[in-house]
Amino acid sequence: MAPPSDPYILWPTKEIATRYRRPFIGPTTGTSGTISWTITGVEKTTLVYDASLDSRLKALEQAYRDIEESVASLSSHFQEGKVTIIALHRLINFDLSESIDVILEPDGDGFIARTVDLDLFGFGDDPKEAVNNLKLEIEGLYHDLMTDDNFSEEWLKVKSFLQRMIKDK
Asked: How does pLDDT run across 126-138, given as a tens digit for each residue?
Protein backbone atom coordinates (compact mmCIF):
# COMPACT_ATOMS: atom_id res chain seq x y z
CA MET A 1 0.00 0.00 0.00
CA ALA A 2 1.54 3.29 -1.12
CA PRO A 3 1.04 6.35 1.05
CA PRO A 4 -1.17 9.09 -0.34
CA SER A 5 0.41 12.43 -1.16
CA ASP A 6 -1.66 14.32 1.43
CA PRO A 7 0.47 14.49 4.63
CA TYR A 8 -2.57 15.38 6.77
CA ILE A 9 -4.41 12.08 6.38
CA LEU A 10 -4.80 10.34 9.74
CA TRP A 11 -4.05 6.64 9.49
CA PRO A 12 -6.25 3.94 11.06
CA THR A 13 -3.51 2.01 12.87
CA LYS A 14 -0.26 2.98 14.53
CA GLU A 15 1.62 0.35 12.50
CA ILE A 16 0.54 1.84 9.17
CA ALA A 17 1.08 5.39 10.39
CA THR A 18 4.59 4.54 11.57
CA ARG A 19 5.41 2.72 8.34
CA TYR A 20 4.60 5.81 6.26
CA ARG A 21 5.63 8.35 8.94
CA ARG A 22 2.16 9.79 9.09
CA PRO A 23 0.06 11.05 12.03
CA PHE A 24 -1.96 8.53 13.98
CA ILE A 25 -4.86 9.03 16.39
CA GLY A 26 -5.14 6.27 18.91
CA PRO A 27 -7.45 5.74 21.85
CA THR A 28 -7.01 8.12 24.75
CA THR A 29 -8.10 7.99 28.34
CA GLY A 30 -10.78 10.29 29.62
CA THR A 31 -13.19 12.18 27.40
CA SER A 32 -10.69 14.11 25.29
CA GLY A 33 -7.02 14.32 24.55
CA THR A 34 -4.50 16.21 22.50
CA ILE A 35 -2.31 14.44 19.99
CA SER A 36 0.74 16.15 18.48
CA TRP A 37 3.09 15.10 15.73
CA THR A 38 5.78 16.49 13.45
CA ILE A 39 5.88 15.92 9.71
CA THR A 40 8.81 16.86 7.50
CA GLY A 41 8.21 20.38 6.26
CA VAL A 42 5.36 20.99 8.70
CA GLU A 43 5.89 22.22 12.21
CA LYS A 44 4.17 20.75 15.21
CA THR A 45 0.40 20.24 14.66
CA THR A 46 -2.17 19.62 17.36
CA LEU A 47 -5.45 17.83 16.97
CA VAL A 48 -8.11 17.54 19.66
CA TYR A 49 -9.57 14.06 19.97
CA ASP A 50 -12.99 13.56 21.59
CA ALA A 51 -13.13 10.03 23.03
CA SER A 52 -16.88 10.35 23.66
CA LEU A 53 -17.34 10.02 19.88
CA ASP A 54 -16.15 6.42 20.18
CA SER A 55 -18.87 5.54 22.66
CA ARG A 56 -21.54 7.28 20.58
CA LEU A 57 -20.34 5.51 17.42
CA LYS A 58 -20.40 2.15 19.23
CA ALA A 59 -23.97 2.86 20.41
CA LEU A 60 -25.03 3.66 16.84
CA GLU A 61 -23.37 0.50 15.54
CA GLN A 62 -25.21 -1.55 18.19
CA ALA A 63 -28.52 0.11 17.28
CA TYR A 64 -27.88 -0.76 13.63
CA ARG A 65 -27.18 -4.40 14.52
CA ASP A 66 -30.38 -4.48 16.59
CA ILE A 67 -32.38 -3.17 13.63
CA GLU A 68 -30.81 -5.78 11.34
CA GLU A 69 -31.82 -8.50 13.82
CA SER A 70 -35.38 -7.13 13.98
CA VAL A 71 -35.65 -7.12 10.19
CA ALA A 72 -34.34 -10.67 10.03
CA SER A 73 -36.84 -11.71 12.69
CA LEU A 74 -39.70 -10.04 10.79
CA SER A 75 -38.61 -11.76 7.58
CA SER A 76 -38.70 -15.16 9.26
CA HIS A 77 -42.15 -14.35 10.70
CA PHE A 78 -43.47 -13.64 7.22
CA GLN A 79 -41.83 -16.71 5.70
CA GLU A 80 -43.62 -18.80 8.30
CA GLY A 81 -46.93 -17.07 7.49
CA LYS A 82 -47.24 -15.38 10.89
CA VAL A 83 -49.17 -12.20 11.57
CA THR A 84 -47.13 -9.28 12.91
CA ILE A 85 -48.27 -6.07 14.61
CA ILE A 86 -46.22 -2.91 14.13
CA ALA A 87 -46.73 0.69 15.21
CA LEU A 88 -46.82 3.53 12.67
CA HIS A 89 -45.27 6.72 14.02
CA ARG A 90 -45.26 8.60 10.75
CA LEU A 91 -47.18 8.69 7.49
CA ILE A 92 -45.53 9.63 4.21
CA ASN A 93 -46.24 13.37 4.47
CA PHE A 94 -47.36 13.76 8.09
CA ASP A 95 -46.14 13.01 11.59
CA LEU A 96 -48.52 11.30 14.00
CA SER A 97 -49.26 12.53 17.52
CA GLU A 98 -49.70 8.90 18.62
CA SER A 99 -48.78 5.64 16.96
CA ILE A 100 -51.32 3.72 14.91
CA ASP A 101 -51.24 -0.08 15.26
CA VAL A 102 -50.96 -1.96 11.97
CA ILE A 103 -51.47 -5.67 11.42
CA LEU A 104 -49.17 -7.13 8.74
CA GLU A 105 -49.94 -10.51 7.33
CA PRO A 106 -48.99 -12.55 4.29
CA ASP A 107 -51.72 -12.90 1.67
CA GLY A 108 -51.00 -15.20 -1.25
CA ASP A 109 -48.03 -13.76 -3.11
CA GLY A 110 -48.13 -10.44 -1.26
CA PHE A 111 -48.84 -8.80 2.06
CA ILE A 112 -51.73 -6.90 3.61
CA ALA A 113 -51.28 -4.08 6.11
CA ARG A 114 -54.46 -3.03 7.92
CA THR A 115 -55.20 -0.70 10.80
CA VAL A 116 -56.99 -1.62 13.97
CA ASP A 117 -58.58 1.83 14.33
CA LEU A 118 -59.69 2.47 10.74
CA ASP A 119 -61.32 0.26 8.13
CA LEU A 120 -58.39 0.71 5.73
CA PHE A 121 -55.75 -1.57 4.26
CA GLY A 122 -52.77 -1.54 1.94
CA PHE A 123 -51.56 -4.37 -0.27
CA GLY A 124 -48.05 -4.90 -1.59
CA ASP A 125 -45.54 -7.43 -2.88
CA ASP A 126 -43.55 -7.04 0.35
CA PRO A 127 -44.35 -5.72 3.85
CA LYS A 128 -42.79 -2.31 3.19
CA GLU A 129 -44.89 -1.74 0.08
CA ALA A 130 -48.05 -2.84 1.91
CA VAL A 131 -47.37 -0.40 4.77
CA ASN A 132 -46.57 2.45 2.36
CA ASN A 133 -49.83 1.80 0.48
CA LEU A 134 -51.71 1.85 3.78
CA LYS A 135 -50.07 5.17 4.65
CA LEU A 136 -51.25 6.56 1.29
CA GLU A 137 -54.78 5.36 2.03
CA ILE A 138 -54.79 7.03 5.44
CA GLU A 139 -53.51 10.30 3.97
CA GLY A 140 -56.03 10.13 1.12
CA LEU A 141 -58.91 9.62 3.55
CA TYR A 142 -57.61 12.48 5.71
CA HIS A 143 -57.54 14.87 2.74
CA ASP A 144 -61.03 13.78 1.61
CA LEU A 145 -62.53 14.25 5.07
CA MET A 146 -60.95 17.68 5.60
CA THR A 147 -62.90 19.16 2.65
CA ASP A 148 -66.08 19.80 4.70
CA ASP A 149 -68.29 18.49 7.51
CA ASN A 150 -71.15 17.17 5.40
CA PHE A 151 -70.64 13.53 6.43
CA SER A 152 -72.53 10.89 8.40
CA GLU A 153 -71.92 10.60 12.14
CA GLU A 154 -69.66 7.59 11.55
CA TRP A 155 -67.44 9.48 9.08
CA LEU A 156 -67.32 12.50 11.39
CA LYS A 157 -65.94 10.21 14.12
CA VAL A 158 -63.26 8.99 11.70
CA LYS A 159 -62.50 12.62 10.79
CA SER A 160 -62.17 13.54 14.47
CA PHE A 161 -59.86 10.56 15.05
CA LEU A 162 -57.62 11.55 12.13
CA GLN A 163 -57.54 15.18 13.24
CA ARG A 164 -56.30 14.03 16.67
CA MET A 165 -53.73 11.64 15.22
CA ILE A 166 -52.25 13.62 12.33
CA LYS A 167 -50.01 16.60 13.02
CA ASP A 168 -50.86 19.01 10.22
CA LYS A 169 -47.82 21.02 9.14
From this structure: 888 999 999 999 9
